[in-house]
Design brief:
Blueprint lengths: L1 H18 L10 H109 L5 H6 L4 H125 L14 H13 L4 H16 L7 H5 L6 H5 L1 H8 L4 H11 L11 E2 L8 E3 L2 E3 L1
Helix pairs in contact: 2-4, 5-6, 5-9, 5-10, 6-10
Length: 402
Amino acid sequence: MKKFLRPVALALVIVLFVSMVPFVPAKADTPGSTLEKIKQAEEQKKQTEKEKQENQQKKEEKEGHLQDLNVKQGELRGKLNALNEEMTATAERLQAVEELLAAKEEEIEITLGEIEEARGVEEAQYEAMKKRFQASYESPKDTYFMILLGSTSFGAFLNNTDYLRMLADYDNKMLDRYREAKEAVIAKEAVMEEEKAELEEIKAEVEKEEERLTGLIDTTNQYVAQYQAQINTANQEITAYQKEIEAKEEQIKQQEADLAALRAQYEKELALSRAAQAAAWRNISEVSFEPGDRDLLAAIIYCEAGNQPYEGQLAVGAVVINRVLSSRYPNTVSGVIYQPYQFSPAGSGRLALALSQGQATAACYQAADQAMAGASNVGSCLYFRTPMEGITGIQIGGHVFY
C-alpha cells in the first residue's frame, strides 16, 4: 500500500506545483519565435555596440586627459631641469665664494702676523733708542754733551754736532717708518675684514638662494611624481578600456554570427511554412477524430487562449485543425499538439494539468467543436503568437494569426 501511495503523492506534488505557475499564453509559431530571437539578438547587438562606443568614448577622453597630463608633466620637467641648472650654478658660485672667503681668512691671518711683527720691530727700535739715551746719561764720557766738549776744534765740534743730529734723525725716522708700516698693516687688516664681511654676506645670500632652489626642486619633484602617478593610472584605465573594447568586438562578432545563423534558420522556417501552405490539404471529412481529441483540443485552447475572447479561442482551435489538414504536419490532433517545440503548454506540464483538472471552459469546448467541424475564422493560418514587429496577419485579441 505504501509503495502505491508514494507515486500518487509525487504526482499530486507535481500537479500542485504546476498549478501555481501563472498563466502565460503559449506560441505555436516556429518562424515567429525565431524572428523574435532575431529581434532580441539585434537589440543585444545594438546594446553591445553602444557599450563598445561608450568604452571607446571613455578611452578617447582618457587619452585626451593623458595627453594633458604628459604636457603638464613635460612643462614641470622643463622647469625642474632649469631649476637644477640654476642650482648647479648657485652651488658653483657658493663654492667660489667659500674659496674666496677661505683665501681672505688666510690673508687676514698673514696680515695679523705682519702686524705682530711690525709691532715687535717698533718696540725693539723704541727699546734701542731708550738704551742709547740711558747709556749717554749713565756714561758721561759717551754723553752727547761730553762728545761735544771733547771736540778738539771748532770743526770737530761742528762735525760732532752734525753726527749727533744725524743719529737722532735716524732714530726718529726709523721709529716713524715702523709706526707707518704698522699703521698700514692695520689699515690693510681693516680693509680685509670689511671684504671678509662682504664675502660672508654674499655667502649667506647664496646659501639662502640655494635653500630656496632646494625647496622649489623638492616641490617640483613632488608634482612630477604626482603627475606620473596620474599618468600611470590613466594608462591602466586606457588599457582596461581597450581590453573591454576588444572583448565587445569579439562579442559583436559572435552576435553577428548568431544573427546570421538565426536569419538562416528563419529563412528555412519561412520556407517550410510556405511549403506547408502550398502542400496538399485534406478535407475535414477525411479526418477521423479519436476519443479524447475533443477534450485535448479544448484543453490546449484553454491553455493558449483561455483569457482571450471567443473569436481568439476559435482561431487557436482552427490553427490546430489546419495543421491536421496540412500534409506537412501530423494527421492527428494529438500528433499536432504534442509535436516537439510547437505548443509550449504540452511541454511544460500545463496541458496535462488542464486535462487532469478539467479546466477547459464551455466556450473552449464550443470552439473545439466548431474547429473540428471545419469552421475557421483565420483561413488556413498555421501559426499564432503575441504581436511583434515583423509579423503580419490576422490579429484577434492578444494574438496575431498567420
